[in-house]
Amino acid sequence: MLSHPIHGLVAATHTPFHTDGSLNLAVVEQQAAHLQRTGISAAFIGGTTGESHSLSLAERQALTERWMEVTRGSSLKVVVHVGANCLGDVADLAAQAQELGADAISALAPSYFKPRSVSALVECCAQITSAAPELPFFLYDIPSFTGISLSMPEFLTLGKEALPTLAGIKFTNPDGMMFQQCLHHSEGAFSILWGTDECLLAGLALGATGAVGSTYNFAAPIYQRITAAFERHDFATARAEQKRSVELVARLASIGYMSAAKAVMKMLGVDVGPARLPHGRLDAAQEKALQTDLEAMGFFEWVK
């Protein structure tokens, strides 16, 4: 077990593309600068928001290399998501992340051929961690995408013995009871990172001190106000700010969350391009309607 506490908001970043769908790595510098301007302490790259399953191994390696170049010497930390169905590819990505100086790695479980037990999941993770023995490792638990619903407290119990670099879990799982069991496992030795933006206040109430999310790319001030209000016991303000998050996420999801979120980034001056298939693309009319609705709800004032 490797202690590596992560506190505050971690942005799960988009992978930038040109309009033809090819990588546009020049935008990474703008992304990193934007995160630092908005008070984000770390970037979680190549995850769900980063469309990792739509990237080739070579593209993922190029993405990691660029993020590490851009953030070298800065205060912005980088967590590299290395998960994939092929554990050989995962090991290559983990080794590269360590070589380039990433702060940590994370991986979701193989999800086509699924581990059917916690012990099998730990075996998969052992192949990952052995490729990057110096980096803290966070399992990425997201049952809604992987279709894998295993006991995370049991994973921590077995992983504590078998995975020397296990630091915690990125917990994108609606099971609040399990979250608490993980949070208090081994006397709170692990970092259990909350992964549901639209319910951040619930996570804080349960004891979360760190969170990873996609809307932190473009709406960090909302969540910073939620956290600040919670800390001063101003729950009315915290609930009002969380309601804004819910309204925002619902509007983006109504037309396809990934494409809409990338459109919002463009509106804020960081053009990360379109999403790749199988995600759809917004046409000009949809983008205009989205911007109009965001203006009407006050979004651009919320994130100043």
Describe the structure.
- The active site is at 140 (proton donor/acceptor), 170 (schiff-base intermediate with substrate).
- It is found in: Cytoplasm.
- This protein is of the alpha/beta class and 304 residues long.
- It has one domain (8-234): Aldolase class I (TIM Barrel).
- It is built from 13 helices and eight strands.
- Strands 7-6-5-4-3-2-1-8 form an eight-stranded parallel beta sheet, covered by helices on one side.
- Strand 3 (77-81), helix 3 (87-100) and strand 4 form a beta-alpha-beta unit.
- The radius of gyration is 18 Å and the shape is globular.
- Name the average pLDDT: 97
Which of globular, elongated, flat, extended, rod-shaped describes the shape? globular
Strand proportion? 5-15%
Relevant CATH superfamily: Aldolase class I
Strand pairing plus helix content: what structural class?
alpha/beta
List low-pLDDT spans.
none
Strand-and-helix sequence, N→C?
Answer: EHEHEHEHEHHEHEHEHHHHH
Radius of gyration, whole Å? 18 Å
| Main beta-sheet annotation | 8 strands, parallel
CATH third-level topology: TIM Barrel
| Number of E-type strands | 8
**How many distinct folded domains?**
1
Number of helices: 13
Task: Bin the helical content.
Answer: 40-55%
Arrangement of strands in the largest sheet: 7-6-5-4-3-2-1-8
Distance between the termini: 40 Å
Using the coordinates above, name the CATH class: Alpha Beta
